[in-house]
Structures are given as structure tokens and as C-alpha cells.
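To close the chapter, one final illustration. This time we ask the reader to focus less on the individual chains and more on the assembly as a whole: which components sit near each other, and how the overall shape emerges from the parts.
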Amino acid sequence: MAARDSRARSPDFLRLVLLICLSVVVMLADKRTEYMQGVRSTLALLVTPIQVIAGTPDRIGSWIQQLFASEENLNEAYERLQGEHMKLRARLQRMQALEAENASLRRLLAAAEKVPDQVLMAELIDVSLDPYTHKLIVNRGLTDGIYVGQPVLDPQGVMGQVTEIMPFTSAVTLITDPSHATPVQVERNDLRAIAFGTGRSDSLRISYLTHNSDIEIGDVLVTSGMGGRFPLGYPVAEVYEIVRDASEAFLRINATPVARLERSKQVLLVWQGLGKEYSGELKEAE
Amino acid sequence: MNGAWLVIGLTIVVAFILNLIPVPEWALPYRPDWVVLVLIYWCLATPDRLSTGVGWLVGLLIDVSNANVLGLHALGLATLAYVTTRLHLRIRMFPWWQQSLSVLVLLIGYKGLVGWMRSLFGELQFDLMYWMPCLIGVLIWPWLFVILRDIRRYGRLFSG
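The assembled structure is written out below.
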């Protein structure tokens, strides 16, 4: 058929072939290099307004909810937060003493002093991407000094890392994405491992631990700081299943992420104290 | 001419918003791919205007909004637009149920192509629910077709 009317159709077909080749080149360039960052940023100027509009009904909904929140509820929340605040303040005091002690001990050992991590609060832009994409869109971007590979946390634990940056927004790949791997260690005994995403939002797979490894159900996995992406010591997941199958070389271990990946509306972007320098002005979290 | 592009652009923007609007977790796998459906309609209705290039651009915008690797949906939609444009005379002659059937085939082909590329990048593990948007898309196609046709006729954009 292509041969029969090739004269009439060929310009169209040629265009398709050219565009397919172009797509493949763009895909490879986007995967392997950073040249496509500019293209993405430019196109994002068209897309971001659409995302903001799409998130509006939800925002109006929660605004109305706030408007009609009863005084009783607000008082209750206020009291709860007040109590929480006091408790955290008390813990912070102890932390500061410990931090000072730690720093002086490190000086005694002539080890590098640890600079505390800096954080920036970001809000999710409420859009539903397709269910096979384990990513979130947050309202901070290039203009806030966000960088690719930046760790993202919620108050409970590690959520993921920034993978695409646009002028005013950025995309966060969650630790449950099948293409994501998080270097972790068991909090109890510093046993190192890697936590792979499974594509399911409630499960991570811990691979390459041999049968004699010391790991138990209920063990908390924290970031190990290996690979340099995630700072050391943030909670990642909790082991809930260990399958010891003698016919397999390694243990089959599953863990639940600690962070509330699907419910957190606010996330924290972290600048690691060690290594990465951040020169811009840091906005205080409100 | 300009009015026609405005209407096409607006329907695509609305489809984009429908694609991104927050829905409850359970409903997410059932959400049809609005942008793709609207694009198929315009490929059938105005094959000379909306060709492969526009499909490619719209695909690139999907890649940005979904934070996929750039070029993924662009490749898929360019191919879809080309195939639809080539078959538009035949599909337009079909009775509605046959037309829906061919839209189903187009949707499955597009989803399959995009899904195959995503699994190459390790982003995706296929399961049965992956194809659900195609089915839902076909169920709403006849209604979408009527709505878009009315929009087109109301604006007296194109003859036919």
C-alpha cells in the first residue's frame, strides 16, 4: 500500500520517520546528558499554569473547609500543636547539648565537623499523574536553587529525590519507583544494603543480602550515606517480611516505607551540610 | 483559520486539565487519556491541519507534565497522529460502533508503544490494569465525539 500511493504519502511518512528519530535522540539526550534541561524548562512555562489550574478545585475545597472549621476544632488543634511544640523544644535542648558534645569530640578526634543539614519546605502541586508514575510535583524549582538529585523528606522519613527541574516546579521520584534504588543500612547494626523500588507504594525490596545476614522483621532501615545522594541516618523503611528460600542465593526481604508517600502534602528539600555548597539565600520554613 | 487553531488548542488544554485533575486513589487506574482522545478526534475531523507534527508537540508537553523522559509520549503521539490521519477517510465512514472499535485499536497500539518504551527504561511493570484507560476511553468516545463535533459545527470551523 505504501508503494501504491507512495508519491502522495511520502512527505507525511518522511516527517513521521524524522520525528521518531528526533524523539529517540531527545530521549537518549534526556537520559544521559543534561542538555535537555533547557527544553524542559521552556516547555514547563506552558505546562505549569495548566497544572496549577488542575489543582485549583482541590485547593478551593480545602479553603472552604478551613473557612468553616469550627472554633472548637481549631482550639483543639492549637492545644495539640502547643503540646507537641513544647515536647519538641525540650528534645531540641538535649539535641543541642549532644551536638555540641559531638562536635567537640570530633575535634578531639581531628575528624571533619558535621555541618547540620539545611531544609526548605515545599508543597505538593495536587495533580494526579498516571498510576504507573511514582513521582510528585512540588512547588519549588530552578528559582529556589533546587538541584537534580536533591533528597526529599517528609516528617517521617525519606520520600525520594528531585529528578526533573523546571523554573517554578520540580518532579520528585519516589523511593518506590521501580527505577529507584536507595542505599540503606540497618539501624541496629549498620549492615549495609540497597532498597529497590517495586512500583508499589507500600513496599521496597532489599536485595543482595546473604542467608547469614543479621536482619530481622521490624528492623528500621536508615540511609547509609553511600553514593553521596542521601545524607546519613534518615529513616527509610521498616522490614516486614523475610523469605528464606534455600534455593535462592539471597534473602528475599520486603520493607514498608516510613514516609507517608501518598498522604504528605508538605515535603522538605534538604541541602546536605557536608559536600554541596548552597550559596543562595535560604527561605525559612513557615 | 486562526479561530480553528484556537478551538483545537482550547480543547487540548481542557483535555490536559482533565488529565491532571486530582482524583481519588482508587479511581486513578480508570481515568481515560483525554488528550489522546481529543487528538484522535481532531486527526479524524481535520486531517490536513492536525498532522504528525502537532501530535509530536502535544506528546512533548505530556512528557513535561508527567515528568517522563522527554520524547516518550512525543514518539507515541506522532505515530498515533500519523496512523489516524492515514486512516481518517475509512474511519469516518464507519458506523459508530465500528468507529469505536477502531479507536480502541488505536488506543491500545499507542498505550502498547508507550508502555513498551517505558519498560525499556525500567519505569513500568505491565499488569492488566494498565490497559484499563483504553477501555474507558472507548466507552466515552461516542459522547466525546458528539460534543467535539458540536463544538466544531457551532464555531462553523470546517465544512463537513
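Chain A touches chain B through 49 residues (CB under 8 Å). The two ends of chain A are 65 Å apart (CA to CA). With these observations in hand, you are ready for the problems at the end of the chapter.
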